[in-house]
């Protein structure tokens, strides 16, 4: 065998190994993507033998379609999207928790109360999942019904909702998360409150994947989850505050003051990242009940959407 052929075979072997260890992850390009940036920069994924292929989505609708078609392996988003996909026939499982949303209900400066939203437009990501459902419930609690009292306009992810409100006063309200809550405040928009304060516990962000992929990549999934939890622990450590703020500034292209406030909110012990991406079963039951009420969906056994066994093994490997 020539040296050239041997080198070519070695290269092919390395490429095959890399492909076998690659996890194609899709998420939203907001502040909650910080553990991915930290994990790649600090080598947490690489040390676990995981090649992270990270991509960002414009909307949850595009993200759901990408997962269902096999374009992505693991998705990090509001897990209500996983419930919607599963109820539509996609065989998937939620494999981690993440946080309670860090969401606030923002309105235009002229809006003094929920009553002032009558006859106005509410901008959302997708009209029938996650934070749009939260918005509809909040408005219903304040006497406003979709269709007769306000209309819903889907525009996509948080960044696009903020841009829509900033560019068009007819778009009167939106549920926003970090860093867009801080930027909205700086633009003169105002918050009517936290969605958690208005609706109670809620399991928002988490990771989910097709069961077929999980079944054939179980060990890789465990390594991936372990690396993600390590990255999250690093982000939540006060010792790494300065580096995290710099990462937020680079990844989101935001000024230092916004990045500093964003980081403080991300690591808030009550409203920020859930330690170790634990899954909140009470919050998930509330999510299912809310979805059943607003969307008229039958409430299934919550456990049917979950497979947290890989998470538990990953945490065990970390000694936590």
Question: Key features?
Answer:
320 residues, alpha/beta, D-Maltodextrin-Binding Protein, domain 2, 2 domains, five-stranded mixed β-sheet, 15 helices, globular
Describe the 3D structure.
- The protein is of the alpha/beta class and 320 residues long.
- It folds into 2 domains: 3-100 and 203-318, 3-Layer(aba) Sandwich (D-Maltodextrin-Binding Protein, domain 2); 104-199, 3-Layer(aba) Sandwich (D-Maltodextrin-Binding Protein, domain 2), CATH 3.40.190.10.
- 48% of the residues lie in helices and 17% in strands.
- The protein is built from 15 helices and 10 strands.
- The protein has helices at residues 3-20, 34-42, 44-47, 60-68, 80-87, 130-141, 158-167, 180-186, 195-199, 211-216, 218-236, 241-252, 256-266, 281-295, 309-318, and strands at 22-27, 51-56, 74-78, 92-96, 104-107, 120-124, 150-154, 171-176, 190-194, 205-210.
- The strands form 2 sheets. It has a 5-stranded mixed sheet, sandwiched between helices. Strands 7-6-8-5-9 form a 5-stranded mixed sheet.
- Helix 12 (241-252) packs across helix 13.
- The longest helix is centred in the C-terminal third of the chain and has 19 residues, at 218-236.
- It is globular.
- The N and C termini lie far apart (49 Å).
- Mean pLDDT is 92; it is low at 5-18.
């Amino acid at each position: 065998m020539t040296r050239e052929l041997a080198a070519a075979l070695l290269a092919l072997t390395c490429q095959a190994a890399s492909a076998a260890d690659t996890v194609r992850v899709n998420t939203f390009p907001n502040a909650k993507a910080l553990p991915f940036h930290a994990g790649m920069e600090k080598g947490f994924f690489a040390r676990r033998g995981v090649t992270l292929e990270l991509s960002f989505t414009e909307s949850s609708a595009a993200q759901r379609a990408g997962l269902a078609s096999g374009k992505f392996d693991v998705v990090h988003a509001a897990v209500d999207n996983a419930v919607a996909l599963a109820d539509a026939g996609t065989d998937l499982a939620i494999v981690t928790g993440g946080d309670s949303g860090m969401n606030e209900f923002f309105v235009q400066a002229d809006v003094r109360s929920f009553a002032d939203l009558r006859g106005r437009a509410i901008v959302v990501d997708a009209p029938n999942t996650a934070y749009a459902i939260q918005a509809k419930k909040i408005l219903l609690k304040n006497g406003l019904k979709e269709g007769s009292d306000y209309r819903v306009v889907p525009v996509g992810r948080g960044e696009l909702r903020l841009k829509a409100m900033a560019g068009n006063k007819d778009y009167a309200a939106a549920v926003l998360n970090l860093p867009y809550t801080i930027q909205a405040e700086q633009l003169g928009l105002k918050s009517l409150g936290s969605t958690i304060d208005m609706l109670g516990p809620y399991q928002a962000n988490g990771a989910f994947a097709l069961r077929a992929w999980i079944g054939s990549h179980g060990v890789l999934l465990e390594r991936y989850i372990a690396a993600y939890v390590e990255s999250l622990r690093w982000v939540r450590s006060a010792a790494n505050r300065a580096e995290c703020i710099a990462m937020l500034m680079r990844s989101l292209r935001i000024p230092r003051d916004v990045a500093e406030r964003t980081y403080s909110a991300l690591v808030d012990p009550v409203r920020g990242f859930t330690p170790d991406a634990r899954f909140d079963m009470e919050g998930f039951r509330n999510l299912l009940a809310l979805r059943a009420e607003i969307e008229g969906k039958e409430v299934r056994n919550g456990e049917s959407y979950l497979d947290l066994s890989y998470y538990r093994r990953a945490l065990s490997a970390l000694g936590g």
